[in-house]
């Protein structure tokens, strides 16, 4: 199986699981961003318990990490 087919299969799996587990989150922000938020929060339960102001912090931490990686190049 080549890499593009593998990536496509993983994406299809992610779409299916996100629609099953968190359909409202998926419809609001998409599969990829929703999965990243769940991952950063630790679990779907932890994400649900966070105040809305913490969501911005989760996104900002990732953005600052990406900026550091870009600046190091």
UniProtKB/TrEMBL annotation:
What InterPro entries would the database entry show? Answer: Nop56/Nop58, Nop_C, Nop_dom, Nop_dom_sf
Query: Boundaries of each Nop domain copy?
Result: 21-73
Give the SUPFAM superfamilies listed for this entry: Nop domain
* Coiled coil (UniProt feature): none
Taken from the UniProt entry, a GO cellular component term is:
small-subunit processome
Gene Ontology terms for molecular function: snoRNA binding
- This chain's protein is named Nop domain-containing protein
Q: Which organism is it from?
A: Triticum turgidum subsp. durum (Durum wheat)
């Amino acid at each position: 199986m080549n890499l593009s087919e593998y990536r496509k299969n993983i994406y299809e799996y992610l779409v299916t699981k996100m629609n099953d587990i968190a359909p409202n989150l998926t419809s609001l922000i998409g599969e990829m961003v929703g999965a990243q938020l769940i991952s950063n929060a630790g679990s779907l339960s932890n994400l649900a318990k966070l105040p809305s102001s913490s969501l911005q912090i989760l996104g900002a931490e990732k953005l600052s990490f990406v900026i550091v990686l870009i600046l190091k190049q």
